[in-house]
Design goal:
Number of strands: 6
Number of helices: 23
Radius of gyration: 24 Å
Order of helices and strands: HHHHHHHHHHHHHHHHHEHEHHEHEHHEE
Strand content: 5-15%
Structural class: mainly alpha
Helix content: 55-70%
Length: about 500
């Protein structure tokens, strides 16, 4: 078999393995519906808004919202389109990573196979490939920027490096840091006499970033997305400590700190510009994760874009070790090391908090919240509104104005003077009295309380659940005003599901 045919066969095996792994997880995130609601409203002619008439930037990725809206415009169901687009981006990321490895590795066949295997085996990467959110797209855009920056560092077009680095910023807020880090490292890697070539790259990058901020300021009246105020507020030691804990949890679930840090140490050992650009992309994303304080969604969403660049570094490390050995049985330890690493990445422990959150989402929650949204669409009176957490499927399927009690889509709650960093990531902002002052028709409390049986309205956990995280974000709603103005109700959603909620009298 020729080298070209062998490479093509390897690409098919990796792509098929990743698709099968993604289908095994078969995950959809409730937060995916927040982005889809923006796409939905954009297609309906209401603009880039969550609630009609309220300009608040609460989507996680402008690029993702526009791409999914484009799929909807040609008649593709938004949810299915988002899921398959994510899988396509995930597969493209794996194949591009295998292409990039050619610039780093001394033993190309082993390195390509190792990079592809590590990506396809990664549980977070496979889980979020069909999750309906932008993590696979960001992963692909970062890899495209890595590829363009490597070409720039070796004489390629500087404007293309700047354009792709700027695309990182348009795709995710932390992409600004990632793109800038790659360009800086790429510029350092250029020969001293030609470093002036870096200027067009930085000008292109700066122009695209400036256009993004100009659009945000003109359309939303803010320099930063509303999600920044809702989830972060201001960088702090508490946030950074929670971010470090997030990384530590990932290490415990997927192989340990030594395994995960070794490829970065190898980047300094290699002292190679191509290796350093790749490491800069991964390290800048890790820094962003720490500063943001991690994420409250399951299966390490924020680390998904790091998986391919880490896999490139890890595969290069493995292949370099194998290249220093003679051919024969002595290469076996490196194959065994690759297999052991893939096994560590492939599945978390059953008691992992992230895995348990995934199971709750997949097995019941998203289906239940979708049913609640569909019931509201068919039964809410004209002019009705909803206040709840979570908001994704409920808002998407109901089509009603929704008050997010965590402030992701509400400027007032997002700017509540509350410290962040010591609670559930993304679930710390609240203002119950403000929510009541908006007089929502329906209050879906208790994490949108859907059960497989109908509770009595006298049950103490009708909607107020004895759960510390839920009580922390909803507890300030309860009081005399709530009792006076709202009455408990139960709705039969069909399929053996019952929604417990409060409706305004």
């Amino acid at each position: 078999m020729t080298i070209g045919k062998a490479s093509a066969a390897l690409a098919v095996v990796v792509a098929a393995g990743l698709c099968l792994h993604a289908c095994a997880w078969d995950f959809v995130s409730d937060d995916a519906f927040i982005n889809l609601r923006y796409s939905q409203n954009l297609l309906a002619g209401h603009g880039l808004v969550f609630n009609v008439g309220e300009r608040v930037e609460a989507y996680s990725s402008l690029s993702w919202v526009l791409l999914t809206a484009l799929l909807g415009a040609v008649g593709i169901d938004l949810l299915q389109g988002a899921r398959w687009l994510g899988l396509l981006c995930a597969v493209a990321s794996a194949l591009l990573a295998m292409r990039i490895i050619a610039r780093l590795s001394e033993t190309l066949p082993l390195a390509r196979g190792a990079a592809g295997a590590l990506i396809a085996a990664s549980a977070p990467f496979a889980c979020w490939a069909l999750g309906g959110m932008d993590a696979p797209l960001f992963s692909l855009v970062v890899l495209v920027a890595v590829f363009a920056t490597l070409r720039f560092a070796h004489g390629g077009a500087p404007w293309l490096a700047g354009l792709t680095a700027g695309a990182c910023a348009v795709t995710r807020p932390e992409g600004l840091l990632v793109g800038a880090a790659m360009l800086l490292v790429g510029a350092v890697g250029v020969e001293r006499g030609t470093r002036r070539r870096a200027l067009p790259a930085f000008v292109t990058f700066g122009g695209l970033v400036a256009a993004l901020f100009a659009f945000r300021l003109a359309y939303y009246g803010e320099w930063l997305p509303n999600t920044y105020y809702a989830k972060i507020g201001a960088p702090s030691v508490l946030l950074a400590m929670r971010g470090v804990d997030y990384l530590a949890d990932f290490g415990r679930d997927h192989g340990g700190a030594v395994l995960l840090l070794a490829p970065f140490l190898a980047a300094f050992w290699r002292r190679d510009a191509a290796f350093w650009v790749t490491a800069a992309a991964a390290l800048s994303m890790l820094v962003a994760v720490v500063l943001e304080g991690g994420d409250g969604l399951p299966m390490y969403r924020f680390l998904v874009p790091i998986v391919p660049v880490w896999s490139i570094l890890a595969a290069s490390l493995l292949s370099d070790g194998a290249a220093r050995l003679r051919r024969g049985p002595r290469s076996a330890p490196w194959i065994l090391a690759l297999g052991a690493t893939c096994a560590c990445l492939a599945w978390p422990a059953a008691e992992s908090l992230h895995y348990l959150r995934y199971r709750g989402h997949k097995d019941f929650e998203v289906e239940a919240w979708s049913a609640a949204g569909k019931w509201l669409r068919g039964n809410a009176p004209p002019g009705a509104s909803v206040a709840c957490v979570p908001i994704g499927a409920v808002s998407y399927y109901s089509g009603l104005p929704v008050i997010d009690m965590l402030g992701l889509t509400d400027k007032h709650i997002a700017r509540a003077p509350l410290a962040t960093g010591d609670g559930w990531a993304g679930h710390e902002k609240r203002d119950g009295q403000y929510v009541l002052s908006r007089q929502p028709t329906f209050l879906l409390l208790g994490n949108v309380r859907v059960l497989d049986r109908a509770l009595s309205i006298d049950d103490p956990e009708f909607v107020r659940i004895a759960h510390p995280a839920i009580e922390a974000r909803e507890g300030d709603v309860y009081g005399q005003e709530l009792v006076r103005n709202y009455q408990p109700r139960v709705a039969n959603l069909g399929g053996g599901l019952f929604l417990h909620f409060l409706q305004r009298r």
